[in-house]
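Annotators were shown the component list below and the corresponding predicted structure, then asked to write short factual statements about the assembly.
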Amino acid sequence: MSDAETLQSGRRGHGRAAKRAARMAHAAATVPFITRQIPIYEVLNEEGLSLIEQNAETVLEEVGIDFKGDPEALAIWREAGADVREERVHIPRGLCRRIIREHAPATYTQHARNPARSVVMGGKHTVFAPAYGPPFVHDLDRGRRYGTIEDFRNFVKLTYATPWLHHSGGTVCEPVDLPVNKRHLDMVYAHMRYSDKPFMGSVTAPERAADTVAMAEILFGADWIDPATGKPRTVVTSLINANSPLTWDATMLGALKVYARANQANLLTPFILAGAMAPVTVAGSTTLTLAEAMAGVAFTQLVAPSAPVILGSFASSMSMKSGAPTFGTPEPAMVMYAMAALARRLNVPFRAGGAFTASKIPDAQAAYESALTMLPACLAGTNFILHTAGWLEGGLAMGYEKFVMDADQAGMLQTMLNGIDLSENGQAMDAIREVGPGKHFLGCGHTQANFESAFHGSAIADNNSFEQWDAEGRLDQAQRANAQWKRMLQDYEPPPIDPATDDALLDFMARRKAATPDSNV
Amino acid sequence: MADDDLDLNSLNDDDLVSQMHDDLYDGLKEEIEQAVNILLARGWTPYDVLTQALVEGMRIVGEDFRDGILFVPEVLLSANAMKAGMAILRPLLAETGAPKVGKMIIGTVKGDIHDIGKNLVAMMMEGAGFEVINLGINNAVDNFLKAIDEHQPDIIGMSALLTTTMPYMKVVIDTLKEKGIRSDFIVLVGGAPLNEAFANAIGADAYCRDAAVAVETAKRLMADRQGSVQARAQA
Ligand code: B12
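Structure shown to annotators:
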């Protein structure tokens, strides 16, 4: 009920005020995560998929994979039956697959502090999250500059205010203005305080992962432990990248173990710049990705059986003429299709995609490259799409306008994934009967009942006449997006939080910050 | 191998040098080694072999790399051929007191494992005739100090791709300052999240946005240094 509907004077209300309020509302509408209703697009048949699987098993057994700087990890592998030579783990054929199929959950719920915003990872579901990691931010007014904690909070707020992003993400930009050894506290807190969507934790050191878990425990309070299992609820999903080719390193493994043991989700991603970090062919990159990802996912299950996990693939290619990373090219899209199918055969949730581009600004290159990664990611049946909004410059910059443009596209894709409504209302036979030949549908009962939600409208596309566009200042998409993010930040209202919980979080952070001097190393 | 059984000995000096330019372009390591030895046997000074045959050949390679005609894997082979030629010339150059091309140590700093860009820089520097000692990834300040002791480089190169590891470059530079040896070296820094302002703020000599700029900058700063060393010697 909006306030406008209960006017003091006893009038009926509605009219202009109510409609304006409803239609202008930029408040954080909750749109549930996606449950796909359209088929998955497959590019490889059984023969192709099993060929890659066989090759990946050969890689693991014959070439082996390094688990660097972590003697415990090596002991775990030895115990599990792998042939460990120094730091190189040779994994017998089929072992990873068996461990994964036996223990790894096919789906899991990542709980949000607002239960209406919890998401399910895996199965028929798709969850969109903003871009991760950029050290720079970009907007039309100020250009490119290092990110700050203020930018970080802005992107958490924008994500919160965007119905099409279901997840708050993680390092939405790097707050370079804060000391390296403490900035994770402010980042995690920003997700907890300025949003009520699920989020990602710190991975840059095991103790920073432990801080994330401790803060999650404070935030969830009495809901932290699930009485049904006696274990903590899964409330954080964190990004663990392989150092391809064929290396998992101590930093990432350290964070992985902290999260797995606390029943928090790990997202294991071979992040491959094909050409440098993998062979230049699609099949070769896919094989390497599968081998690394299987070893990583199996490792989480050895550390903590049934701990929630996502198998990831980040495929990009490299310009063989300069060495620069390239994005939105067709070959990585093929890797995505193949990896999604291979993850399904392991029965684990799959992450890929993003609105990738190497462009520095929100221009045509940015739009094309992003679209050509997001569409295949969606069609492939990807469950978690990190980097859905904001990515510029190969991940070096988070763009304010780009964020708005990408989020707008995410809404479109969501509608596409919802498939075709074949209900009685969807069939619209009553409308066709009512209108008949030679008239129009604008006034018929069915249209009157459905027009508002009928077509997914873009918030930033311009579909008006040339003259109107001209009169409104000939703005391009990026300029319209510029106005949009400013409006969103202006209208932003933080989700309520229990003051005692907030105090406890702030107190924890203050104590952690006081415990060690600021350091940038 | 060249496609035919060309006997490099049968070429006169000019043709041989032109052939070397082609062989560097095609990344033919053994042919370059052979040709370097032939020129030396014909009485060329090591310095002339270096500048007229090798450096000039690699200048052409660099130009075509910049113009997008050559691919990275091709330049890698060219750089390897150059490196092989340099291995023969280097001791001779030292003996004859020719101006040094320069020696570089390069590594990714502590906490960071990104090494693709750093390796490209190492490759291009070798291609330009520099001697490069690649320290790999995740280098603490002690590794840099040890390598300085062991190799006596002219240039220290540091790479970082993470905003969380960039500040470590300052730790290395500050340590050099503490030890009073900062000005003995050219310090170059690079990595996508850096910029010029950052390099200035931490006291590096230069930020290089890519491998080609790294080579140009290194050459320029080496020339300045040798100029200043000579100037000092003359004063
Ligand atoms: C490939 C890549 C990886 C690979 C690295 C593999 C490898 N062996 O190097 C992997 C997957 C392992 C990886 C891991 C991680 N990465 Co990474 N990675 C990248 C990526 C996409 C490309 C880097 C690259 O190789 N570029 C190609 C080369 C040729 O370019 P370059 O490195 O810039 O080098 C050129 C110049 O800079 C210069 N140069 C470089 N070094 C030097 C040195 C000297 C002396 C000189 C003169 C010049 C010079 O010359 C080079 C050649 O032209 C960047 C994004 C980007 N677009 O840069 C992210 C990026 C750097 N990574 C990032 C992150 C966050 C990570 C992880 C923390 C992710 C995670 N949660 O697991 C881990 C950290 C691991 C660790 N401990 O270091 C962020 C960092 C941002 C930040 N917040 O600080 C970026 C920006 C991406 C992102 N948005 O997330 N990554």
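Statements collected:
1. Residues 1-7 of chain A have pLDDT under 50 and may be disordered.
2. Chain A has two domains: 46-97, 101-417.
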